Write the structure tokens for this entry.
Amino acid sequence: MTSSATARIDHLLTYVPDLEAAADLFQRMGFHLSPLSRIEQMGVANRMALMRPQSPGQASYIELMSPYEPARLPPPLQPVLSGGPGIGSMVLVADDVSGFRTSVLAQGFECAPPAHVTREWKIPGEPSVFPEFDVMLPVEAPLRFNACKYYNLHLYLREDWTAHPNGAIRLLKVLAVADDPADLDFFASLFGQPGVVQADGSLLLPSGEIALEIIPADGLKSRFGIEPDGRAPGYLGYEIEVESLQKLRTQLQAGGVPFQDGDGLISITPDTGLGNLILFSEAA
């Protein structure tokens, strides 16, 4: 498959019912968030934990999003930004969003043609900037996803926004759960890279520098101490690479954020992590 027909993981759109409370949690975890931004034509507001991608042509971040005027939400975003908190959509970056849409249609999913969007991003104390991108709205799949292409990526790579007190470097992995991970191997075609079945039965799907790991539902308890609770198929959370686990521990303790420590990982449970299991690993 040609590169124009594939895409790679760029960031996660996470739904939070209370954006202010979510921002407070992330700041107590030691993240430096982008200023509040409203996308007025859609009636949504966001803040982002922007990190430092290791590959050109993409970003790496967690987007906290909440509707402030639900009546304006486009229909494809209504199921993404409702219900319980958690990952609403895995956002991919593509060199050619229209070409990638062809691949999505070939997998049997329905999706509208991409739209070209420019919006004003008001930054306190600075002139407005105008992010421009092609975007394909979320696809209703067992794991919801969508795709974009940036025209001014540098806006998401500001050094003052990508440096975090907790030492966060980049998004490393998206975690999901399925009764049978093989049912979701269509992502291998969309990513243009073969998946790898691991010893515990999970399916690791490389996607550029960020991987999607799909874990068997019957293995959640033994691996993470989490009951499936009807999650499958669905998103479980994500893993972030940090400079130092000790630096992160200090931030979490200072912020009063409960965490678990073991097996070379620090974890925050879904009850604390806005519906997401958040893992942190130390850079090699």
About this structure: The chain is about 15% helix and 35% strand.
